[in-house]
Every structure is written in structure tokens, then in C-alpha cells.
Amino acid sequence: MNILLKYFPDLTEEQQEQFSLLGGLYEEWNAKINVISRKDIESLYERHVLHSLAIAKIMQFKPGAHILDVGTGGGFPGIPLAILYPETQFYLVDVIAKKIKVVNEVAKALDLKNVKAAQRRAGTFDDRFDFIVSRAVTNMPDFVKWVRKNIAKKSNHDLKNGILYLKGGDLTEELALFPKAIQHNLSDYFEGEFFETKKVVYLPLKYKS
After folding, report:
1. Of 120, 128, 147, 137, whose CA–CA distance to 203 is shortest?
2. 60, 72, 25: which is closest to 44 by C-alpha?
3. Is the pTM of this model over 0.85?
4. What is the separation, in whole angstroms, between the first and last Cα of the chain?
């Protein structure tokens, strides 16, 4: 928890309590259904929770906004972002049913009324969202193909609607087709070796009818 308060000192008491419960919840569920690697569960708050919240350093979601988390796994980045933005609606999808079960159970335990989760494959539904978030589920060209039709037409934020993608390494080749993509280095926001090569990629996308 201390690492979260270092970078997000304005958390409410309720948010602090919800974040503090995450460790125990994921340890419990990970023992039943492996959604986080065994070595990473010990670094949950740095490598999963804080990593997810990096998106909040780039974009502050407004009340009433709708966010889609594709390939959420055990609920990242969607669950931490839903705690941080209780008035924003989050829809978390993954193709693996047991992972969605964990997401639903964690959201229920935290009383997150702004989270819905479903076993769905990206590209198979037409719901519209202000932003689509994810953690490195595939390369950007394929990801854009999956989610392009899910971008809402009207932008209500300072940044135009689009993708906020957590990924690491050299993305020059992968982003060559997307000249409007902006890379934000997480080392500019967070200390530690884990964040040295990590990025948030923002890619504005136009509504496609």
C-alpha cells in the first residue's frame, strides 16, 4: 500500500481500504485459479496495481465515462482503475471464463458497482467506449483491428477517444503504422527497475460506423 500512497497521495479512506484488500483477495484466488504468476504475486502492488494505475498519470477519466478493458486476465488494469475512478464505468472482458470468475469475485468483495465483467472475445461485440485499455495482450496492429469498432463517436475528455495500452520494450516497429501514437515512459512517473522499459501508449482512434 505504501507504494500506492507515494504516487497517489489523495486516495480516500475507502479507496485505501479497497486497495489494501487486493493483496489478500488475489492471494486467496490465485491459490485456486492461477491468474498471476507465482513470483509476481509477491510484487502485486508494484507489478500489477501500480502498473495498472500508470494509465491515470496520462488520462484522468471523467464521471460517466465508459472504459473497456480487453484481455483483463485477473482484472488488470480494470480493477485498480475502477477503484481510482468510482464514477466511471468499466467493462472487463477476457476469453478465459475462470479469469472472469476471479474478476467478478474480487469486484464483489470490494463492492465495486462500476465494474461489469464477461467472458467475451474482442471484436465480437459492438458496444462503444470512450477509451479501451489493456496490458500487452497482442501487437498494436492486431489490437486496433479488434477494437476499432468499439470507439465512441463523441469525445468528452481532453484527449480524443482511443486506446491506452500498457506495454514494454522498443515499440518503434510495432507503432510504425500509427504516426499519431504517443509513448509515455513510466520511468518518468515511477521509480524502480520494473518501470524502466514500461510505457503507456496513447493512440487516438476515430469512430467507425
Report:
1. 147
2. 25
3. yes
4. 43
